[in-house]
TrEMBL record:
Coiled coil: none annotated. Belongs to the AHA1 family. This is SRPBCC domain-containing protein. Pfam families: AHSA1. Residues 24-170 form the Activator of Hsp90 ATPase homologue 1/2-like C-terminal domain. InterPro entries: ASHA1/2-like_C, START-like_dom_sf. Gene3D superfamilies: 3.30.530.20. It comes from Cellulomonas wangleii.
Length: 182
């Protein structure tokens, strides 16, 4: 049976999303992409989407509520998610379950949230941060719970874009400064 902190034992019918990026920051700094609301707002949502809201409480039993807003050309719709934390081991590991909520934080079904019914109501996530040489970090995000390939592929594409945005936060600036968070 799948648990939020053990995606390796996912049910065989599930299709996992696995996305990995190398960040130009040590794990304790890379961790802030999950714990600092200003940074979460900079990377959450695929390309062209914004994150006007990130209420962050990263602790076991805590949750983060994020709002992803579509570009005006797509109607500017908003989707709210709650990440309910099950494992918090800074700066190495996070495990949480993502659910859809309304603006007030009340749980919604995928259909009520305006997404396809094939999207699971609860999506377990595990985030691993691994120290690399030269003060860098490999971040690997795994989502489980998908039961069809099309929905899994859509989530994969969205997470790839989100983590591209996160990676850019920590990229050295073109001027050679080592202050990518400013």
């Amino acid at each position: 049976m799948t648990t939020a902190d053990d995606p390796q034992h996912a049910h065989p019918t599930e299709h996992a999303v696995v996305v990995s990026r190398e960040l130009d920051a040590p794990p304790d700094v890379a961790w802030t992409a999950w714990s600092d609301p200003n940074l979460v707002r900079r990377w959450w949502g695929p390309t062209g989407f914004t994150c006007p809201r990130a209420d962050v409480d990263v602790r076991v039993g805590g949750s983060t509520v994020v709002t992803m807003q579509a570009p005006d050309a797509w109607g500017g719709f908003r989707i709210h998610n709650r990440w309910s934390f099950r494992v918090v081991q800074p700066p190495e590991r996070l495990a949480f379950v993502s659910t859809f909520v309304d603006e007030a934080g009340t749980a919604l079904t995928p259909g009520e949230a305006g997404v396809p019914a094939t999207v699971p109501a609860e999506v377990p996530h595990v985030v691993l941060l691994e120290a690399l040489p030269d003060g860098r970090t490999r971040l690997t995000l795994t989502e489980t719970g998908y039961v069809d390939e099309e929905t899994r592929a859509q989530s994969q594409a969205g997470q790839e874009q989100c983590l591209d945005k996160m990676q850019a936060i920590f990229a050295p600036s073109r001027s050679g400064s080592d202050a990518p968070l400013s």
